[in-house]
Each structure stands twice: as C-alpha cells, then as structure tokens.
C-alpha cells in the first residue's frame, strides 16, 4: 500500500523559520544576558565602594557572627603577652591617627603557622608561630601596624563586602542559599590588592618611624618568610611580592644611622620558650 502526504491547499499559508528570526532570537538572549551581567557588575562595585563608609559599629555587629572561630582557635593562656600586644597595637594605632571609634582587638592563635591577619570588626589574629620567630619588638610592630593599616583603610570591610556580594550573585545564578561567609577562616583567607598591600606597608613604616625614630627591624619577619617560604604559605598568599616589599623597607633606612632594636618583652619570650 502506497501512501503520499496530501498536497497543502494553496490558501493555507505555511512559512518556515527563517535565519533572520533565529538571529533575532539569539540577539535578544544575548541582550538579556548582557543586561544581567551589567546589573551584577554595578551592584558589586556599588557595594564595594559604599562598604568603606560603613560605621565601625556595623563592622562589630557583623563580626559577632564569627565568634566560633575565635572560641575554637584563640589561645587564652597568654594573658600577659596578650595585654602587651594589645597596648602595643593601641599605641601604634594612635601614632597612625586612627579614628577614635575604630575597634582594635588583638588575639593570639594556637599553632605553629607563622601568620597574622586582620578581620572585620577590628580583630587582629597573631599566631604563636609568628611570635616564635620574631626577634625584636620592631619586627612585631611592623606586622601589627600593617594589619592595623588594613583596618584603618577599610580594606577588610571592603574585601568582606566584595566576597559576600560575589557569593550572593553566584547563589542567585546557581540557585544556592549557601552564600554567606560562615566563619573566621573565610576572613583569614581574604586577599587584598597590590595597591592595598603597598599602602598598608607605607602606613606601617611611617608609624614605625614616628614610634621608634627609625624603621630598622621592619624587614625582619619578611626576610624570614623569603628564606623559608614553606613555613608560611597562607602569609605568602595574602601578602605577595615579599622581595619587593623588603627592598622598599630597606630604602627607608639610613645605614649610617645608629638605631637600636627594642627587645621583646619577657611575656612574649616566654611563648618562644614553650
């Protein structure tokens, strides 16, 4: 049995989808996608810009959500050393002309990793490992002053806002609700731009110059990192261009100048002996 499709009557209009129609459809999709991307980019930079103007009280409120990290990792037995670090940090912040309402809380973290980082709410975490390798208060002050500068310059809140906004955008795009920064580890791994790092170094060196009268010793910890880059991978990741930074620090020093380094306190030396 042979079957043939009937002929379509002349009065019935049958049209094929033209290449022009497909092109228009694809163009419309491209415009929609580009609009969404542009919208997210605007939101991202809007949040990043205005985050720097948030009151410090807002930072403190947000930081309360990361208490689990501190409770699990902070070493509370170094009471005397912690008090001395806090006083040193406050004195450095004063020399930096930091805002009076800027919070500043120093904490010592357990472990051998050599690292220090600033977090939202004015928290600075210094590891036992870092305290074990610094040999002068000047070297320790450089590290603290650098992190204080990040807080004063609002680098931390800007990085937090950027990370949270990007995560939120990805969550909206992928349909996930797991977008908030969950703990202090997220804050510890925040990265700053090269310009932010250079500015923090510059501010820290000015503070050391005002506080000690010179910048000798400021390069000490960075030189140790460069000589043994395997002991502080996280520090290297968050503080790039170590060799260049050492060179910049050395340029601020007058080799003909007689400068004495201030020794570490007995309380901090006690940590080194443990």
Strand content: 5-15%
CA(first)-CA(last) distance: 98 Å
Number of helices: 13
Outline? elongated
Q: Structural class of the secondary structure composition? A: mainly alpha
Can you walk through the features of this model?
The chain is mainly alpha-helical. It has one domain. The chain has helices spanning 19-51, 56-63, 67-73, 79-95, 128-133, 137-152, 155-174, 184-188, 194-212, 220-227, 233-238, 242-251, 266-272, and strands at residues 105-109, 116-119, 123-127. Strands 1-3-2 form a three-stranded mixed beta sheet. Helix 6 crosses helix 9 (194-212) and helix 10 (220-227) runs antiparallel to helix 12. 31% of the residues are buried. Mean pLDDT is 79; it is low at 181-185.
Give a concise summary.
The chain is mainly α and 274 residues long.
Please give the structural blueprint.
Layout: H1 19-51, H2 56-63, H3 67-73, H4 79-95, E1 105-109, E2 116-119, E3 123-127, H5 128-133, H6 137-152, H7 155-174, H8 184-188, H9 194-212, H10 220-227, H11 233-238, H12 242-251, H13 266-272
Helix pairs in contact: 1-7, 4-6, 4-9, 6-9, 10-12
């Amino acid at each position: 049995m042979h079957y043939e499709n009937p002929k379509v009557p002349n009065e019935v209009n049958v049209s094929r989808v033209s290449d022009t129609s497909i092109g228009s459809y694809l163009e419309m999709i491209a415009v929609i996608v580009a609009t969404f991307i542009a919208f997210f980019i605007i939101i991202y930079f809007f949040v990043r810009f205005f985050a720097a103007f948030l009151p410090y009280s807002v930072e403190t409120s947000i930081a309360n959500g990361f208490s689990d990290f501190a409770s699990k990792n902070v070493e509370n037995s170094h009471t005397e050393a912690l008090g001395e670090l806090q006083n040193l940090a406050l004195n450095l912040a004063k020399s930096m002309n930091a805002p009076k309402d800027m919070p500043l809380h120093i904490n010592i973290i357990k472990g051998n990793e050599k690292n220090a980082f600033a977090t939202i709410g004015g928290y600075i975490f210094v590891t036992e490992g870092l305290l074990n390798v610094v040999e002068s208060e000047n070297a320790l002050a450089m590290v603290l002053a650098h992190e204080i500068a990040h807080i004063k310059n609002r680098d931390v809140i800007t990085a937090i806002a950027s990370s949270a906004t990007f995560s939120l955008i990805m969550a909206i795009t992928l349909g996930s609700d797991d977008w908030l920064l969950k703990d202090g580890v997220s804050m510890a791994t925040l990265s700053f731009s090269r310009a932010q790092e250079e500015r923090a170094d510059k501010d820290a060196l000015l503070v050391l110059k005002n506080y000690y009268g010179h910048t000798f010793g400021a390069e000490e910890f960075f030189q140790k990192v460069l000589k043994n880059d395997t002991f502080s991978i996280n520090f290297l990741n968050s503080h790039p261009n170590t060799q260049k930074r050492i060179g910049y620090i050395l340029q601020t020093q007058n080799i003909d100048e007689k400068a004495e380094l201030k020794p570490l306190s007995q309380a901090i030396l006690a940590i080194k002996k443990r």
